[in-house]
Structure formats: C-alpha cells, structure tokens
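Reading group handout, session on sequence-to-structure problems. Before we discuss, look at one worked example. The prompt was deliberately terse, the way you'd type it at a terminal:

> structure Phosphotriesterase-related protein

The input record follows.
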Amino acid sequence: MNVVRTVLGDIPPEELGICDAHDHLFLRTPALPGQELDDAAAALVEVQRYAALGGQSIVQWTPHGMGRQWDRLVEISRATGVHIVAATGLHQARHYASLEDIWDRLADVFIAELSWAGMIKVAGDFHGLGDHARHTMAAAAQAHRATGAPIGVHLEGGTGGHEVLDLLCGRLEVPVDRVILGHLNRTPDMRMHRDLARSGAFLAFDGPSEANHATDWRLFDCLAALIEAGHAEQLLLGGDTTTAAARSRPGMSYLIRELQPRLEREFGLAAQIFIGNPAMAFAADWLISAK
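And the output record:
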C-alpha cells in the first residue's frame, strides 16, 4: 500500500498536508559542539507555532546516531497533531565519534529502523563521493530494495548531485523517483539544477537560514528556472534547522508565513510544492510493516 510512514504509524499520502520537507527537531553532532538541538520543550514550541499557521507535517532528516530522540518525536506529534516523518541512514563520517559497531551491518540497521522511520538519509561529499559515502549509499540501496523507503541525500554545499545519481540510480539501481537531492540552494547553479531535474529525482531547497543566507536571495530564481522548464512536480521546500542558535531564526514557521504566500503570488503553485509534491516524494509501497 502506498503510504507515508510517520512516527505514529502509516498514513495515506493525502493526509500529509502542508509539509516542511527537510528539517530537524533534534540533532547532535561532534562537528557542532555546544550547538545541540536537544531541548524537547523548545522543539514542542517550534512545532506548535508551525501548526498554528497551518503546518501539518515535518520530515526530520536526522539519521542514525545523531540524537533523533524518537520517543520525543512521538510525544510532540501526539501533542500537536503534526505528522512527523523520521529518518534512518547515516550522515558524513565527521558527525560520528565511531561507527565501528555498525559499519559492517548498515543495511540491517537501516531496515530494522524503517519499521518506524519513513526515509533513509545519506550524504555525499563536496563535489564527489568518498569511501564512506559509497559504503553508506550501498547500504541505503539495499535497505530501499528491502523496504521501499525513499532516500534523501545531503549534497555537501549543493554539489555532487550527478555523482550521487550515477551511483544510486545507475550502479545501485534505485529508481530515480525514490531519490530526493537536498541542499541544492547552496549552489544556485540553475543549469545544473535543470540537468539534475531531467533525471526525474526530487529536488529539495532549504531555508532561508543564517547559515545559507549568502545564497537565499537566489531561491526564487532557482525555483522559477525549474518551473519554467517543466519541473514543478519535483520541487520540495524545507527549513533545515541544524543548531539551537538557528531555531526560530527564522524557523520552520517562515515557510508558511513568508514563502508560501510568495510562491502563490509568483507561481500559483504553493499547494503543489507544499502539499502535492511531498505526498509523492515521501510515500512508498512499503514491503515491511510499521512497528
């Protein structure tokens, strides 16, 4: 059955509603010491603000071993009525103290976690793929084949999209419409975006945020180029809050408060980008049952 797997169970895609397609309520990494997203009360307030503006779902891309706090996600979803999709998978090696205990059984770990997680998150490197990325993506492809789960990809600085597709959808034979390429706003190369879009993958743009403000002003130019080229059905938007300092600056509510009306005024496509496209991107014909 084609459903979206949330932390409270499977739902029909049409129930996902207005969706923040890439964000983090909880996240911990040695790469950002002292910037942990680990305050459950603050996360609850952020989701309440988002829900008050009409937000109905959040896809949390925090993968295995980075402080996902699954039990807190369940509590927040129940308290607010907002659907939350969690992730398994792995980020880049720098985000872990050690992976020795799971490195040789990554696919098994991902498959087990996909009984409650709704996507697999993996990461490329800057303008390429190293051994860690290749090993992780091979495990993600195996987990996809066993479960049907979609795969979201952190593109470092918005680069390396072609290498990712060559590996995941070429050699590893993951259907391209099951792949979501993230952070494309960080390299606002519209020719590259159109080329990637022609593959059929979903394209995720983040922000605005303090971290990415240098390219935030190009967001609507990038979206316009893709829409004009006929790729509106592949576009996703998310806030991608990754540190405590960035929470609510401007926060996930900005997507609805500012970006949604601008999208509607400029393109008439707010419902498609915030509702229709996430329903397609994150739904799957699951091969394993939800926990």
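Points for discussion. First: Residues 212 and 239 are 11 Å apart (CA to CA). Second: The chain has ten helices and twelve strands.
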